[in-house]
């Protein structure tokens, strides 16, 4: 038996085992074909090959388009619709056919020539967004080449049955979303940190993931099957025979059974973080008490911006599905590590300290106003709240609220029915922690975004694995900030929740319970464990004198964890 | 033959989805449809060609339609351009 193992960063908890499926450009797709000898090329047969590759690519794209439309809605599906349009483009495939006919090129060379020229043409454009369309051209071209080589493409090549560990150098949100999640047992990604989008999405879907596997990657890619621990970041090689012997491993991905809601700490609402309306299935499966964080930015990460009506439809869908429980919609939080081609954001030297989230919205008022109008239009569908990310000053909060009021007036004057919206803000900038008492008097609730709060509090780029050890949710300073915010909220009579990753960390359950936090919102897959952790707490001990103070008095993260583990029954 | 200028006034220009909508609409007509900007004239039924003009917001572009259904094509394409500007990308109305 092969005992080799690798270490990465645990990005999404859970144990999994399965055969490896490598995600990436198919080998040989871009390999140069033999130089053309017009005398030897049979143009009609080359044309027929191109035609066949076009038909097959179209079929594969259609399949992908349908899947994305079902899972994620029209907006993302249109990326693939545009790709199919290229397949019937006279300047693209039409030109390829001409080159085969007139110049006697083999199909592969015609595809490559026209692609190179098209990419060059787009690369010369001034606008960065148009230049980025070159990626779409290359994407379609690559699929044509793969079909010419007799291979399937991309996600459509994904094995139709079984449970697979998807391995990739990098995993984009679109890839993560489009892979068939019923057949993905786990993700292993070479690049990226614990809070990369692929990792967040993996947690959303409850799929174990190990990221940042830098050492020994080449060796790992040669392995046929693995077992892994998405919490510890451990990956072990498995022989196929051993894999077959593992209970449940080869057949279907491990499914967490939703636990019964815990009787203890019913005062804490356990809500879900979601990124897409399709995540609602997980909200139900894991019995979330509403949505504590609806990340709207995924609507904006396609190749085109969503219209107000499209946004209103998406938000309405989530709100009405969650009713009578609350849906908290976060306004566009983009910039920093999130890319949105349709927004054509300029590159920044320090994107996490630059134009992101609310700052971006203030720079693009038409975008912000349209989103707020869409939220108001959806507000009639059920209990809803809006919250603003990345607020550092009181003026920003007031400005955002002004936009919200203007949007309401516009929507009402257009005759749309509107409901009531709770108005809240995220606390993720240390300056907002300091100002919490002042801010609390202007909002209905706080939601602490621990991912960014930790990043800004301990000055650690959360994408940088070299300083990952300093990114500590248990840092006494971080817990002190959380305590300060909760107390400021309670003094002002508003509720406080946590929607960052720490909100789903069962180790912190005693602290949150002792503090009297009102809501914890997390990736749906984490809910059962948190429910269990809260149920297992020794309530007398936690209610005991000075419990929270003892934790806040700790000097190190290690002291904090030692203390916390002593409060379970 | 119809020849006239128009301005792309949706916020993000005639990129990806808007360009795809344009090409899909144009493709439904028999008439030839050509777009011209800065002395570059391209096939208005080709996504690649339309993208290659780099029509950002505010771009002025000349369209030439020629064929039996040129008037209907022009009407629908100009309606599309107006709708793109109105559909969520610009403040003020839906």
UniProtKB/TrEMBL annotation, chain A:
<dbReference type="InterPro" id="IPR040442">
    <property type="entry name" value="Pyrv_kinase-like_dom_sf"/>
</dbReference>
<keyword id="KW-0808">Transferase</keyword>
<feature type="binding site">
    <location>
        <position position="295"/>
    </location>
    <ligand>
        <name>phosphoenolpyruvate</name>
    </ligand>
</feature>
<feature type="binding site">
    <location>
        <position position="462"/>
    </location>
    <ligand>
        <name>phosphoenolpyruvate</name>
    </ligand>
</feature>
<keyword id="KW-0963">Cytoplasm</keyword>
<keyword id="KW-0762">Sugar transport</keyword>
<dbReference type="GO" id="GO:0009401">
    <property type="term" value="P:phosphoenolpyruvate-dependent sugar phosphotransferase system"/>
</dbReference>
<dbReference type="GO" id="GO:0016301">
    <property type="term" value="F:kinase activity"/>
</dbReference>
<dbReference type="GO" id="GO:0005737">
    <property type="term" value="C:cytoplasm"/>
</dbReference>
<dbReference type="InterPro" id="IPR036637">
    <property type="entry name" value="Phosphohistidine_dom_sf"/>
</dbReference>
<dbReference type="InterPro" id="IPR000121">
    <property type="entry name" value="PEP_util_C"/>
</dbReference>
<dbReference type="InterPro" id="IPR008279">
    <property type="entry name" value="PEP-util_enz_mobile_dom"/>
</dbReference>
<feature type="domain" description="PEP-utilising enzyme mobile">
    <location>
        <begin position="165"/>
        <end position="233"/>
    </location>
</feature>
<dbReference type="Pfam" id="PF05524">
    <property type="entry name" value="PEP-utilisers_N"/>
</dbReference>
<feature type="binding site">
    <location>
        <position position="330"/>
    </location>
    <ligand>
        <name>phosphoenolpyruvate</name>
    </ligand>
</feature>
<dbReference type="InterPro" id="IPR018274">
    <property type="entry name" value="PEP_util_AS"/>
</dbReference>
<keyword id="KW-0479">Metal-binding</keyword>
<feature type="domain" description="PEP-utilising enzyme C-terminal">
    <location>
        <begin position="265"/>
        <end position="537"/>
    </location>
</feature>
<dbReference type="InterPro" id="IPR036618">
    <property type="entry name" value="PtsI_HPr-bd_sf"/>
</dbReference>
<dbReference type="InterPro" id="IPR006318">
    <property type="entry name" value="PTS_EI-like"/>
</dbReference>
<dbReference type="GO" id="GO:0008965">
    <property type="term" value="F:phosphoenolpyruvate-protein phosphotransferase activity"/>
</dbReference>
<feature type="binding site">
    <location>
        <position position="452"/>
    </location>
    <ligand>
        <name>Mg(2+)</name>
    </ligand>
</feature>
Automatic annotation (TrEMBL), chain B:
<protein>
    <recommendedName>
        <fullName>Phosphocarrier protein HPr</fullName>
    </recommendedName>
</protein>
<keyword id="KW-0762">Sugar transport</keyword>
<dbReference type="Pfam" id="PF00381">
    <property type="entry name" value="PTS-HPr"/>
</dbReference>
<dbReference type="InterPro" id="IPR001020">
    <property type="entry name" value="PTS_HPr_His_P_site"/>
</dbReference>
<dbReference type="InterPro" id="IPR050399">
    <property type="entry name" value="HPr"/>
</dbReference>
<comment type="function">
    <text>General (non sugar-specific) component of the phosphoenolpyruvate-dependent sugar phosphotransferase system (sugar PTS). This major carbohydrate active-transport system catalyzes the phosphorylation of incoming sugar substrates concomitantly with their translocation across the cell membrane. The phosphoryl group from phosphoenolpyruvate (PEP) is transferred to the phosphoryl carrier protein HPr by enzyme I. Phospho-HPr then transfers it to the PTS EIIA domain.</text>
</comment>
<dbReference type="InterPro" id="IPR000032">
    <property type="entry name" value="HPr-like"/>
</dbReference>
<dbReference type="InterPro" id="IPR035895">
    <property type="entry name" value="HPr-like_sf"/>
</dbReference>
<feature type="domain" description="HPr">
    <location>
        <begin position="1"/>
        <end position="90"/>
    </location>
</feature>
<keyword id="KW-0813">Transport</keyword>
């Amino acid at each position: 038996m092969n005992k080799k193992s690798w270490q990465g960063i645990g990005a999404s908890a859970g144990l999994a085992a399965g055969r490896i499926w490598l995600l990436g450009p198919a080998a040989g797709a871009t390999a140069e074909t033999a130089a053309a000898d017009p005398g030897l090329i049979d143009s009609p047969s080359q044309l027929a090959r191109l035609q066949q590759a076009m038909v097959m690519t179209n079929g594969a794209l259609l399949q992908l388009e349908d899947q994305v439309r079902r899972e994620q809605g029209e907006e993302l599906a249109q990326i693939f619709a545009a790709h199919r349009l290229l397949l019937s483009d006279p300047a693209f495939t039409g030109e390829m056919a001409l080159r085969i006919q007139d110049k006697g090129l083999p199909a592969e060379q015609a595809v490559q020539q026209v692609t190179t020229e098209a990419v060059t043409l787009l690369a010369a454009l001034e606008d960065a967004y148009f230049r980025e369309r070159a990626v779409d051209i290359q994407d379609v071209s690559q699929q044509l080449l793969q079909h010419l080589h007799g291979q399937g493409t991309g996600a459509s090549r994904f094995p139709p049955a079984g449970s697979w560990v998807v391995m990739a150098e990098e995993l984009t949100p679109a890839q993560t979303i489009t892979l068939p999640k019923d057949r993905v047992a786990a993700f292993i990604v070479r690049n990226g940190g614990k809070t990369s989008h692929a990792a967040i999405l993996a947690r959303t879907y409850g799929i174990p993931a190990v990221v940042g596997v830098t050492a020994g990657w080449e060796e790992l890619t040669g392995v046929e099957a693995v077992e892994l621990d998405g919490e510890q970041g451990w990956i072990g090689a498995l022989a196929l025979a051993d894999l077959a012997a593992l209970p449940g491993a080869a057949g279907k991905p491990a499914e967490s059974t939703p636990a019964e809601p815990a009787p203890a700490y019913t005062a804490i609402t356990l809500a879900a973080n979601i990124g897409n309306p399709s995540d609602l299935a997980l909200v139900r499966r894991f019995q979330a008490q509403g949505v504590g964080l609806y990340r709207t930015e995924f609507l904006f990460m396609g190749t085109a911006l969503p219209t107000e009506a499209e946004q209103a439809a998406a938000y309405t869908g989530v709100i009405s599905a969650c009713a009578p429980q609350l849906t908290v919609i976060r306004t566009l939080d983009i910039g920093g590590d999130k890319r949105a081609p349709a927004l054509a954001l300029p590159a920044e030297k320090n994107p996490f300290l630059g134009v992101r989230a609310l700052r971006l919205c203030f720079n693009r008022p038409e975008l912000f106003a349209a989103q707020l109008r869409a939220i108001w239009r959806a507000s009639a569908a059920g209990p809803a709240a809006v919250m603003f990310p990345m607020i550092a000053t009181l003026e920003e909060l007031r400005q955002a609220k002004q936009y919200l009021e203007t949007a309401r007036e516009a929507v009402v004057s257009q005759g749309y029915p509107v409901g009531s919206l709770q108005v809240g803000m995220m606390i993720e900038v240390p300056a907002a922690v300091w100002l919490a008492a002042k801010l609390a008097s202007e909002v209905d609730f706080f939601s602490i975004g621990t991912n960014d709060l930790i990043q800004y509090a301990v000055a650690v780029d959360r994408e940088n694995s070299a300083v990952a050890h300093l990114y500590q949710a248990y840092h006494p300073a971080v817990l002190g900030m959380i305590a300060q915010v909760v107390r400021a909220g309670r003094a002002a009579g508003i509720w406080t929740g946590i929607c960052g990753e720490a909100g789903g960390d069962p180790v912190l359950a005693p602290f949150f319970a002792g503090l009297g936090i009102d809501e914890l919102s997390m990736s749906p897959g984490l809910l059962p464990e948190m429910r269990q952790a809260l149920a297992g707490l020794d309530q007398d001990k936690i209610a005991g004198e000075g419990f929270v103070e003892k934790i806040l008095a700790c000097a190190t993260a290690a002291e904090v964890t030692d203390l916390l583990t002593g409060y379970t029954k | 033959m119809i020849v006239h200028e128009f301005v792309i006034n949706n916020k993000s220009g005639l990129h990806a989805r808007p360009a795809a909508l344009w090409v899909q609409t144009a493709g439904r007509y028999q008439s030839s449809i050509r777009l011209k900007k800065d002395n570059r004239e391209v096939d208005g039924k080709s996504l690649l060609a339309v993208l290659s003009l780099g029509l950002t917001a505010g771009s002025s572009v000349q369209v030439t339609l020629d064929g039996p259904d040129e008037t209907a094509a022009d009407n629908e394409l100009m309606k599309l351009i107006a709708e793109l500007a109105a559909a969520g990308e610009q403040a003020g109305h839906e």
